[in-house]
Amino acid sequence: MKIHLIRSPEYSTEDLTKVYELLNSFKGPMKFEMNDHVFDKKDFYFLNYDLYPHHNFKFDSDKKKKTFIKELGYPLSFEELFSLCDSFRKRFRIRKNDFVVLITNRFNSLNWFSHCNADKNAFIHAAEWEKFYIKAHHKHPVAYQVIENVLQNLMEVESLEGYNEYVHYHVRGCINDFCKDKREVILKLRTADICGSCFKRIEEKKIPFDITDQVFQILEGLRTQFLFNKKVNRVSIPYSIYIDEDNKLLIPQLGNMELKLEPILSTLYILFLLNPEGIKAIDLSKHNSKLKYIYKFLNPNVIPEQVRTSINELTDYENGSFSQKKAKINRKIKSLLGDTRAQDFLISGRPGQPFRINLQLENMDINF
Ligand SMILES: [Zn+2]
């Protein structure tokens, strides 16, 4: 399988070469090829951006993606970018199963960082990485996105109805996270991970082992190189926690580090995650039915009598059970993360006031 890397005219040959050399240093069934073909601006009017300054390639912010509404079809600039790939395919007689990846500095009308269509044509937006996000060359995030788009196409994450569940709208640190912000691409680059459900999909789709092996080698290599040069701007990514299909509490920003707690402690912790405004110790018993539900969800085999006893004991204000359990959770978090990094994860507050956890709720994948 070949992956042809091409460029739009404003993206330099030197930069394309850097991305190509980086990817080509990882050997396997995916063969990277670079072609320095220059598209003729006479054939593609939109490439004369000095003549068409208001053409909707132009987008005023690099910070956020806009929502893609499938019913409206691909926006104009997507079609145009893919038309460059198609013309390259015809001219150089590229086989159907090979990928053509256009690297471009042009903004597109949804401000997406990359996209691959069903015909295995992809574009990667390469501008402004160094300006805002990293001090090193942008080749690492761009190379990462080449691999991401190839893998997503092989996994068939997109159908006529739009994306399926293998594209994650909540950050997990998985290659298939839908990144709304470029800092989230950096996060993926740093975690170099593929989550459990995506792995199952890779098996279902029978993607050959030697391809996934090469994908992992590349992700791991990009990660190591990227972190090694230590030129990443200190962008603060808010921490979050999600629960995977095995009910593990995982921190995606720390390479899916697990916060291991016994079930009753997990139950209490999740209740606080679900109530970011905080809960007073004396009000805990108001959440009895929710706590029972979570406890049962985490331990499907537990008998109802035990659920009742454990939760009633936990929320009994008189017996001090909450304070003990809270202290136990916080000790566990500090020993896992160290005192400084633990701060966002602790259940904190003053006696008589609401206790809370300072993690962002929007990043959570929990559906209780
Ligand atoms: Zn995933």
What's this entry about, in short?
The protein is α/β, with parallel strands linked by helices. The protein has helices at residues 13-24, 76-92, 129-132, 139-155, 182-191, 196-204, 209-228, 263-274, 288-298, 304-315, 321-337, 339-342; strands at 2-7, 31-34, 99-104, 114-116, 121-125, 158-159, 162-163, 242-243, 249-251, 257-259. Helix 8 (263-274) packs across helix 9 (288-298) and helix 9 (288-298) crosses helix 10.
Main attributes of the structure:
368 residues; alpha/beta; Collagenase (Catalytic Domain); 12 helices; 10 strands; binds zinc ion
Commentary on this structure:
- With 368 residues, this protein is α/β, with parallel strands linked by helices.
- It has 2 domains: 2-228, Collagenase (Catalytic Domain); 245-363.
- Helix content is 39%, strand content 10%.
- It has a 5-stranded mixed sheet, with helices on both faces. A 3-stranded antiparallel sheet has the order 8-9-10, covered by helices on one side.
- Strand 1 (2-7), helix 1 (13-24) and strand 2 (31-34) form a beta-alpha-beta unit.
- It is elongated, with a radius of gyration of 24 Å.
- The protein starts with a strand and ends in a 26-residue tail after the last helix.
